[in-house]
Every structure is written in structure tokens, then in C-alpha cells.
């Protein structure tokens, strides 16, 4: 990989301090959150042209609307959707009693994963969950960039969105819409972060408090205080996933009890259907109700994706036997389970032997809970990095995965991850030690 794709533009923000200063400030702000040590760190935010930044959000909002419609149309009830998606039994919990409420507030917190292909943005998946990564990390990175690049009046030479400012507005709007007190329960567990400190959650609560919004972090064992204590918290952020808590042995019963007693946690459990990669497959294949413009939007921004089973479908407008096509085109495809996080449950065809690929494909086709997707070779942009073993910043071409945050339908900043040494692959900070940064516009 080399060069700089035109979509990224040519403007690069120069480091505004010595490497040691940048390293120390970045690590200080992200401290005690469970974020891993990163020997390579960004020297400045990534700058996009205003038009590219706007395109990313314009596509995100439009595609999310389609994702929502596709997921909800699979069945008219929660039970029907659980069956249609082949969801594990563990996901049949934490729904609120009112179906409209479940559906209305499923997509409050969203972050798609986007790479830049030869012709521009390609949306690989939609993360729809209050537990998605990016808000805290983006907030912490932006504190550093604003301090380093701001003038005496706090003005910076770039545009940006503040994730916590947008999420604060989301909660105020939700409180007004529901007619409840604007008090927010941040529900999660420090055990999820792998450390004893609760700073990961406290950063957000403290931000809200400083802006006049009452918020409190609750471990599940204390959650009963959100609805039975002297100060009721009618709204909240569901900052955990069922698989993570199952793995850690954390009981979800207190969460169900809070929901049953009128605490609305967003996104609701219905978000699981929107986040399932099966929804991307259904959307890519097309639904009868989609307009010509919607089909064109999907064709432009989604790589070819299909729910994998032994059936007929189309590729490049030509009929194909999906199972045979998938086996025969290993080097052009990626296999993904419907549910998965941090790059897990993903098999890249060109990195897999033919025998291993065919075995995995045939097994996945029998369950019907995986997708096959066209592999996108990500385009690169040039960034400046600082390292632990040198005081001199250096430049490298990286292939970023862009994560535009969307809270309550509003842009909330772009979290991005990449391999700081320029290699490609499944990018995850927690899963395989990628680097991260935030994106601004110029």
C-alpha cells in the first residue's frame, strides 16, 4: 500500500508539540480506562476535506434508515425476529414490554465501520449498540488536540464534533420526548474494562455534570437504586453487551428489573437486529419496497453482501449458485458471522487455505447465520506517528477504518482505527493492538 487516496484530500495537520509531550498527553487523558498500551500514537488528528466528512455522514444517516427498515420488517414481533435471525437464546432478554418503545429507541447509538475503496466509502457493517467503542476514546483524543492546536481563545484550525456534547443533547431530547426528568444512568461494569477503576464511565458522567445534566454510573449490583432510590433515573445508556457479561459471569437480571420498573436504556435490545450482519446481507440483496434511488445508494456504498445459504442469488446482475460461488471465489470474499465484535468471527478468504475456506463456508451455509461479503482492499492516507523509542515523528501510509458516531441521528465525531505500521487486516484496538485517532475536517 502506498500513496494517498484523493478522498482523504491532501491537507495534513502538523504536530504541535514535541513527541514526548504528545505521547504523555494522549496517555494521560486515556489513563485508567482499560485502553491498552500503544507503542505508536498519532501526532495530530486526521484531517478530511469538508466534502468527504459530509459525505460520510450523509451516507451513514441514509443507510441507517434502510438498515432499520430492513431489520424491523423481518417479522412483526420480537419473537418473530429472534427466529428469523436465528439469534442465540441468550439474546432473548432485556426487552421492554412496549414494542413501540423497543423499536423507537433501538438506533440511538450507532457507529458503522467504513473503509475507503477505489471509488470512495464502503460500509462493512453497522454497530448499533450503547456499548460501541469510540465515544470515550474520541473525547479523550480531542481534549489533547484542542489543547495543542487551540489559540488563546480556544479556537482550533479545524472542525469537529464532540461525542459527549451530542450525546448530552440526545438525552435531553429523549427526556423531553418522554416527559421525564433529565437524569441519566450510565449502566456498565468496570469488569468489562479489565481494571478496577471506573474512570471509563466517570469521564462521561463528569462531562454531563459540568454541563448541568445529572448522570451517575451504575454497576449492575447497584442498578436498583436507579428506580427505587430517592432520586430516580428514568433514562440511561446500556454500555455493555450480553455476550461480554456472559463471558465475565455478570448477571443481567438487575438490568431486566430496571427495565421492568420504567428505566429506559438505549439502545434497546432491538438494536441487536439492526447490528446483525444478516441485515447488511438483506439490504445488499434488495427488498421489494426499495426505490430505485435507495437501490443506487446501497450499490454505491455497500460492498456486495449476501446471507450465506445453499440457494440462488445474483452477483453483478448475473444469477449464481451462492454456495458454489462463495467456495470458488475465496480470494475475493470475506466470511462473517451475524453476531461478532472486535474482528472476531471473521475469515478473510485470501488469508485462508482453500480447504479451510470450503469447510468454513459449507458449515456456515447450513446455519444461515453468516454473511459472505466482497473483500474491499482499503485505500490509504498518510499520517504522522510518534513512537516510544524515538523523539522524531515519522510518516506512514495507513488504511484506516472510519467509525462515524451517530447519536440520536446527529453526527458526533469520527473514531478511526488502523495499523500504525501500515499493514492491513482485521483492525481492532483491543483485539489486535491497532492504533486509534479521531478525524476532523478542514
Key attributes of the depicted protein:
six-stranded mixed β-sheet; four-stranded parallel β-sheet; 37% helix; Dna Ligase, domain 1; alpha+beta; 442 residues
Please state roughly what percent of the residues sit in beta strands, choosing from under 5%, 5-15%, 15-25%, 25-35%, 35-45% or over 45%. Answer: 15-25%
How many helices? The count is 17
Main sheet, how many strands, which sense, barrel?
6 strands, mixed
Number-wise, the strands total: 19
Strand order of the largest sheet: 2-19-18-17-3-4
Helix/sheet category: alpha+beta
End-to-end CA span:
25 Å
Averaged pLDDT: 95
Helical residue percent? 25-40%
Pick out the low-confidence regions. none
Principal-axis shape equals: globular
Rg is 22 Å
Describe the structure.
By secondary structure, the chain is α+β, with helices and mostly antiparallel strands. Among the domains are: 66-106 and 129-273, no CATH class; 304-374, Dna Ligase, domain 1. It contains 17 helices and 19 strands. It has helices at residues 19-29, 50-73, 78-84, 99-104, 135-149, 163-178, 190-193, 199-210, 225-228, 242-248, 253-260, 271-275, 277-285, 292-301, 322-328, 354-367, 429-432, and strands spanning 40-42, 46-48, 109-117, 120-128, 183-187, 214-218, 235-238, 264-266, 305-307, 312-315, 318-321, 333-337, 346-348, 370-374, 381-387, 390-398, 401-407, 410-418, 435-441. The strands form five sheets. It has a six-stranded mixed beta sheet, with helices on both faces. A four-stranded parallel beta sheet has the order 6-5-7-8, with helices on both faces. The protein has a four-stranded antiparallel beta sheet with strand order 9-14-12-13, sandwiched between helices. Helix 1 packs antiparallel against helix 5, helix 2 (50-73) packs across helix 13 (277-285) and helix 2 (50-73) crosses helix 14.
